Amino acid sequence: MDAAIQQTLLELFTRVGDDPSAMPRIPLDDWPDHSPERQLLAGFQQMLTRQQQYQHQLQQEHEQLTQRMQEREEQYHSIFEASTDGLFIHDMADGRIVEVNSAGCRIGGVRSYEEIIGLSPIGLIHPDDHYKLLEMQQTLQAEQNYHGRMLAVNRHVDPPVPYYVEVYASPFTYLGRPHFLAVVRDITDQVEAYQLLERRVAERTRELSTLLHISQTVASTLELQPLLNVILDQLIAVTQCSGASIILLDGDQLEIVEAKGIVGGEPVRHLRFPVQAFGPFWQKLAAHQPLIIPDVRADVPEANLFRAATGSLLATTLAYVRCWMGIPLILRGEVIGVLSITSAEPGAFSQTQAELTLTIANQAAVAIENARLYERAQAAAVLEERQRLARELHDSVSQALYGISLGAHTACTLFERGEAARLQEPLRYVLSLAETALTEMRALIFELRPETLENEGLVNALSKQMQVLSVRHHLTVKTELCAEPDVSFEIKQTLYRIAQEALHNIIKHAQARTVTLHLESHDGTLVLTVRDDGLGFDAEGSFPGHLGLHSMRERAYKPGGTLTIESAPGEGSCITARLPISGART
């Protein structure tokens, strides 16, 4: 290559080096056409032209990529900032925050972006949950995603306020180094709502459990006075009240039949008030609505009426009362009384408590009515028993005494006539009647108070009862009795009275020839069976005026037992009582 070409190329590359965008022109005309030198320089000229075109194209693409990257970065930043979740970028090595969005600043409880950059998560999480940070770090370092709930704390308020956050974290590379992105969401409202729901469910469960317990408890006794005490005990336990009383309607009067927790110097049990004294109170209660007076000392119409109705009691026995709640006792749509509940604290009772107590009151009203019916049935049974004993005395002992009187009178007449030889017959007659009367009296006394039951036990008492039945009524009796059971006297007395009532019904109604009594102990239960071959009856029918069957059922139920009756016309009858050996309804 000659010196001219070398000089030309040197100048060309020098100009390109000084200004790559310049397009130098090679003076091709300085060389002859088709000369090797001109062809060589023409090749260089084409190469430079293509290079400049490529360089221009690369420059345009670079500018476009740079613009797109700027736009994408702005988009990512907008998304990063617009997210309502807190976005935190942490250095994987030490966990410190290197980037955060506005939501993250807000959730982190800081006042500025600069304040949170460089912080460790330990400064944001409650000490109780620091162990979760370690779990998160170990998970992320294993290149796995993390999800969990943590208790954070805002230390920029006094006192610091804890709150709940949900954390999603993923490892990624940022600025060429390992980092992780944590998406943090404030879930305090959701957690508190769930906790509130759990509390409400727990409260509802407790209420239902309480109602079930109360239902079982009030159904455990048919005696009125113990029942009233049970109801009041449950009310005090449920409402946490200071005092409670049961007021029942009697005509146009209201009577406090039982009270508990009442303090003061004047007794309230059996106090009576005219219904009119309660005026608007009674109208609201009669409409089946609970009534709450938050403060009976306040100067409001309802409190004024309460003070007027209670009179001097509010200064003595009820001096402690500040809040009062009245719950109607409703039976078959009618108000039969009121549950009066008091507290020494103003505003102690809520509408929720009133609704729960109203449910209790509905159960209590039914239980009170059942107890009243049971008392009436007991009174009727006692009256029927007295009438039966009176008939027995009239039919047996009274007749025997009348015969003794006649025989003695005849003997006296014969003696006065001097007919001593004829005295033997009337005197033997008198002796026979006296022995018969003595036997009858002993049998009646045994029915009233079977000393054998108390002294010798249930088995001997039942055996003797069957012997008396055989002698007095000329029946064929069969007994199958187990060994003396180890149970309370109350259980023995209940079984004896059931047997006595069943045998009495057989004598009175069955026209039976054979009676079988069976007693056995099986699986913690005493089973008494009384069977006859008499006329039988419709076991599903009703028997107005005959309380024996109802009385037997009530006797069996009280200690926790059952009584079944099997019978049909012409097929005799079988009565079976089952009582638990241990445990009884109180």
UniProtKB/TrEMBL annotation:
Keyword Membrane: no
Domain Histidine kinase: 388-583
Record-level GO cellular component terms: membrane
Coiled coil: 48-75
SUPFAM superfamilies, A to Z: ATPase domain of HSP90 chaperone/DNA topoisomerase II/histidine kinase, GAF domain-like, PYP-like sensor domain (PAS domain)
Molecular-function annotations in GO: phosphorelay sensor kinase activity; protein dimerization activity
Membrane-spanning parts: none
Keywords per UniProt: Coiled coil, Kinase, Transferase, Two-component regulatory system
Cross-referenced Pfam families: GAF_2, HATPase_c, HisKA_3, PAS
Biological process annotations from GO: regulation of DNA-templated transcription
Domain PAS stretches: 72-144
Keyword Coiled coil recorded: yes
NCBIfam families from the UniProt entry: sensory_box
PANTHER family xref list: NITRATE/NITRITE SENSOR PROTEIN NARX-RELATED, OXYGEN SENSOR HISTIDINE KINASE NREB
Protein name: Histidine kinase
Organism of origin: Reticulibacter mediterranei
